[in-house]
Amino acid sequence: MPKGYVIAHAVVTNPEKWGQYVEKSKVALAKFNGKRIVAGGKCEIIEGNGTQRNVVIEFASYDDAKGYATSPEYAEAKKLREGAGTLDITIVEGA
Q1: pLDDT in tens, 20-35
Q2: CATH number of the domain at 4-93, please?
Q3: With contact defined as beta carbons under 8 Å apart, do 5 and 65 qualify?
């Protein structure tokens, strides 16, 4: 079965509030056995608009990735992110 990935691109405007969101999102991450394989770090935009903060989370399946992103636990974390920045999230099935 192919793995699933959550790919996120973020612009953070309030690091303190964003940090609270990240901590709370770990509850959903653990529930669906997600593994952060990219979380911030050095970044260089080569083409297009891009963002400076990028996250890739690996899951055992597409369904687990979707379960994480649509779970009540993640919804609770999202509330803490309000006013802290913007986030684009895509769920992708791996090869």
Answers
A1: 999 999 999 999 999 9
A2: 3.30.70.100
A3: yes
